[in-house]
Amino acid sequence: MVTPPKRVLTQDRLRSAVQNLLLETDWTEITVQDVSVSAGVSIGTFYNYYDSKDEALADVRTCLSALIQKDLNSLLLTQSRVECRISLLLKYFVNILNAKPTWANYFYRAENFSERMDGGLMALLEPLVLEEMLSNKGRVHNAKITASFIENGFFPLLKQYHANGMALPDGEASQIVLLALSSMGLSGDQLEQASSLVCPVTPLAALPQSIFELEKAQAGHV
Length: 222
Hints:
By secondary structure, the protein is mainly α. The protein has one domain (6-218): Tetracycline Repressor, domain 2. The chain has helices at residues 6-24, 32-39, 43-49, 53-76, 82-99, 101-108, 122-134, 143-163, 170-182, 189-195, 211-218.
């Protein structure tokens, strides 16, 4: 078996260190020295890879965003109706709150989705809202504003539940989806059916993730 280059392994340790620290404390309280100590490298080595701790976070966020996106793509392909896909998208993040504690710490210790996911929830939600607009089912005229409105109401609620160590009951999750879809001008039986969909437990492994091992697995290496 070919040994990975030292640079690859060092960066993987730095990425894992960032994830570990994010699970334990607020990012604002973390220093470059904290990341370096956790990774077992010198501060000088850290700066060989990143210009700042925020650049390190951005790198980790991009890697984990790709993992989330792949997971969601598989999930959303199970539904043909766009309102059902929106329902599963929102309930996916409820499932993280309820059943994936390390991922819940990763997401809901932040101040918004965009701190932990490239583009935030809007990057995933806006195309779906636009699709709903083009189908002439909804009555909204600006997909970006609508997606932002939903995200800005959804994230603080999940963050509050996480801070209080509480799960979000299925009935309340369905009510949130109902409100989100209603804000798009949707109504009727299809709205009720979409909001009551059950999202399966997500197959995400616990954090921290070895980005190197993840990328190797995705490339089909043994």
